[in-house]
Amino acid sequence: MGILVTGFRASGIFSGIKQSGKKDLGLLFSEEPATTVGVFTTNKIKAAPVLITREKVKQRCCQAIIVNSGNANACTGTTGLQHANDLCQLVAEQLGISENLVMVSSTGIIGVTLPMDRIENSIPKLAKSLSPLGLSDFAEAIMTTDTFPKIVVKKDKIDGKEVTLCGIAKGSGMVMPHMATLLSFIVTDLAIHADLLEELFREAVNSSFNRISIDGETSTNDMVIMMANSRAGNSNLQKQSSDLKTFKNSLNATFVDLKKLILKDAEGSTKMISIRVKEARSNEEAKKIAYQVANSSLVKTAFFGEDVNWGRIIAAVGKADADIDPEHIDVFFDDLMIVENSTSTGMESRAKDIIKKSEFQVTITLHNGSGMAEVDTTDLTTEYVKINSSYHT
Amino acid sequence: MGILVTGFRASGIFSGIKQSGKKDLGLLFSEEPATTVGVFTTNKIKAAPVLITREKVKQRCCQAIIVNSGNANACTGTTGLQHANDLCQLVAEQLGISENLVMVSSTGIIGVTLPMDRIENSIPKLAKSLSPLGLSDFAEAIMTTDTFPKIVVKKDKIDGKEVTLCGIAKGSGMVMPHMATLLSFIVTDLAIHADLLEELFREAVNSSFNRISIDGETSTNDMVIMMANSRAGNSNLQKQSSDLKTFKNSLNATFVDLKKLILKDAEGSTKMISIRVKEARSNEEAKKIAYQVANSSLVKTAFFGEDVNWGRIIAAVGKADADIDPEHIDVFFDDLMIVENSTSTGMESRAKDIIKKSEFQVTITLHNGSGMAEVDTTDLTTEYVKINSSYHT
To answer: I want to staple B53 with a disulfide (CB 3.0 to 4.6 A). Which of A49, A223, B103, B179 is the partner?
Structure first.
């Protein structure tokens, strides 16, 4: 059963970038110009493809994107910019469309220039391989240390028409603890105004990917691009449309599902943990505390060791740049209170059953206001260190 | 060859806190009240002994400190405070001195109350074991996951008298990436005014320990205490004394040597790396960038894998909250320039020889001002994760 989104074609091939011989070049093409929105890394060092695609997305209308894995084309100077532009031009020629409508994205090692001869030679084949059933090849071609391709599909009736949403992502567990290259491409045949799409898209990103990748802790290459090509035949989705909620729910669910696939594939991780901070002085402070806990190597290794070492959680809370009352912190594992007023409730052995689960919540209540935040993290494992010390990604 | 500091006695015994049966209770005693200064954790969650000892050090005159390992007496509420006070009182009774002159310090697991019956029963033995040659027993008694005791001794001629400085520390590699319990006790028989001692002490801490443990990234229990008991017989060291520089150098060297011992013993680490940031907009920004690099799991795993993956360094620079020019970053491994204007100099294979060393420097030049900072870090190893996931510390 192939994945079909009306009017989109895709392909993925091996072009000679990856030493492994695995697919490393992908192309996504809409048969007509599509409403396009995107968000990009907040890292101050931005890869050449990010600089170029960010500008093109401002038109809110694009038609294709070429993506390579195995090489980030970051820190490659003016040569890198030239290469990224050349890729767009080569694809535009093959597809017979304007270069302005072609975006570019890269992921992989930083600081090495692209092997342009090999890529250039592969582009005709890449274009010829375009197929309505090619989305899974494309999903494979954008992988780096990912162990499986990440694709989510949702179908809805909007304005009486069948509308398909297809989200594709690559993570590599580097999302946590610090920066990953997170690439994600969402395509739909829905007809929708660009302003509304932008609004729904940003909201969905904020409540999914942005919960796993803090501002400023992003890689040089992160981008999330969404294209809507109107081929479902619905009349333009409006803010007041009765079907708005249906689409919004599917869009949010697509992002949340992709996020879960990314965390599931986080390099070497064995668990997914939601860190919830409640009753902080402000949402901002709640977020700082949640990230301090979620990014603490000591907390994450304790999760891996299934050790109910809540002292490490409390110590992480205490080092956050936030106003807390050190004597009045409560900590729950799922619904079990293990710390009350900053001291043990004696429930450590019961908490053992929770920490053994592959997914659970840690709630930290601060009794200091009404600020809230929630972020998702994984455990830190020996496998993570092995992967990140042995692979030159 | 025992270590002697005139007028100081020390001991270390097993009292029943550690399951391993290793020494877990130490006592340090000056035969007369000593000029005392200290610095304490900046974590908002402070262990009971930190709260109590911080107050006592304000008098700048103390005579003894009792230290236990295996239990941090942190997040133990009013019971914990009572226990810490009781320890001081029990020691004061045994030594026949005022309780006001007795400090207390703890390290180990958070959130568990001290086994006071066992400790109380051991205090007479602890006091009886006090010996001028007991400093090495004391150094052993304060260890947690440390693999060796850390002691540094310096001797100087000051005002014609022989003065001895002895620094003792416990680290456990948890200093990096986030928080360690760092305890350190420095004793000297020098005569020196409290104001001057405070000044020299803070300067020495800032250029040593504070370079490995960022503000707010400290544990609940950190403390560094220095006692000077005047028994060397020199006339009070003054700011204008010709011997000031001699003592200052020895004090700084003591802290730097202790820092090196701590990094050497960092849990599972195989390397020590100095991260230097130059030409940042300000010292403050240089510091932020240096810590972002020094604490990056990706950078630290690359060091472990001896992989000249400078892209991870650049990406870490880019996520720091600092003003940088993304096109003009240079990176050196020791004196070898591997990145110029944010692109490769092609020197990766020569840099391989440097990254294989057990100690080297990474210099990041930003061409954006005159701000500088330097921090020391270690690599992140599979052994680190094993230690921190298997041991309940």
So the answer is: B103
Q: CA B191, CA A384: separation in Å to the nearest integer?
A: 52
pLDDT tens per residue, range A185-236? 999 999 999 999 999 999 999 888 876 654 445 788 999 999 999 999 999 9
Please tell me the predicted confidence (pLDDT) of residue A210.
76
Interface test with B, best of A218, A291, A343, A377 (most B CBs within 10 A): A343
Kindly state the helix (H) or strand (E) to which residue B64 belongs, with its residue range. Answer: strand B61-71
**Which residues touch B316 (CB under 8 Å, ≥6 apart)?**
A178, A179, B292, B293, B296, B298, B299
Cβ-in-10-Å burial (0-12, 13-18, 19+) of B372 comes to middle
By Cβ distance, the residue of B305, B311, B386 closest to A74 is B311
CB atoms within 10 A of CB B282: 16
Domains of chain B: 8-264 (3.60.70.12), 272-390 (3.10.20.340)
Is the predicted pLDDT of residue A393 greater than 60, yes or no?
Answer: no
Return phi, psi of residue A309, to 5°: -95, 70
What burial class does residue B78 get, using C-beta atoms within 10 Å of its C-beta: 0-12 exposed, 13-18 middle, 19+ buried?
A: exposed
Q: What does the pLDDT read at residue B11?
A: 98
CB A105 within 8 A of CB A223: yes
Please indicate whether, in this complex, the C-beta atoms of B110 and A302 are within 8 angstroms of each other: no
Q: Contact, B158 vs B145, CB < 8 A?
A: no
Q: Is A147 on the interface with B (CB under 8 A)?
A: no
Q: Which residues of B touch A79 (CB under 8 A)?
A: 343
Q: Do B76 and A177 touch (CB under 8 A)?
A: no
pLDDT at A178: 43
**Looking at residue A279, what is its pLDDT?**
97
Does A339 contact B381 at a Cβ distance shorter than 8 Å?
no
Distance CA A83, CA A115 (A): 9
Cα-Cα end-to-end distance for chain A: 33
Alpha helices in chain B (DSSP H): 48-57, 77-95, 116-128, 135-141, 194-206, 244-264, 283-294, 297-304, 310-319, 348-355, 382-390
A133-145 average pLDDT score:
95
For B372, residues 6+ apart whose C-beta sits below 8 A from its C-beta are B276, B277, B278, B279, B280, B283, B286
Instruction: Return all residues near B178 (Cβ < 8 A) that are at least 6 apart.
Output: A296, A297, A298, A316, A319, B217, B295
Cβ under 8 Å to A: B residues 339-378: 339, 341-344
B296 interface with A at CB cutoff 8 Å? yes
Check pLDDT > 60 for residue B217.
Answer: no
Confidence of residue B173 (pLDDT cuts 50, 70, 90): low
Pairing of strands A150-158, A161-170: antiparallel
State whether A44 and B318 contact (CB < 8 Å): yes
A164 among known catalytic residues: no
Task: Supply the pTM of this predicted model.
Answer: 0.79
B326, A44 Cβ separation under 8 angstroms: yes
Q: Which helix (H) or strand (E) holds A283?
A: helix A283-294
Residues of A in contact with B321 (CB under 8 A): 216
Residues in contact with B338: Cβ distance below 8 Å, sequence separation at least 6, in sequence order? B308, B310, B331, B332, B344, B345, B347, B348, B351
Contact A301 B389 (CB under 8 A): yes
CA distance A105 to B360: 35
- pLDDT score at B390: 64
Give the separation between CA B274 and CA B377, rounded to whole angstroms.
6
B318 in contact with chain A, both atoms CB, cutoff 8 A: yes
- Evaluate whether A116 touches A86 at the Cβ level (below 8 Å): yes
Nearest residue of chain A to residue B322 (CA atoms):
A44
Who among B74, B174, B385 is closest to A385 (CB)? B385
- Residues in chain B with CB shorter than 8 Å from the CB of A301 are 384-385, 388-389
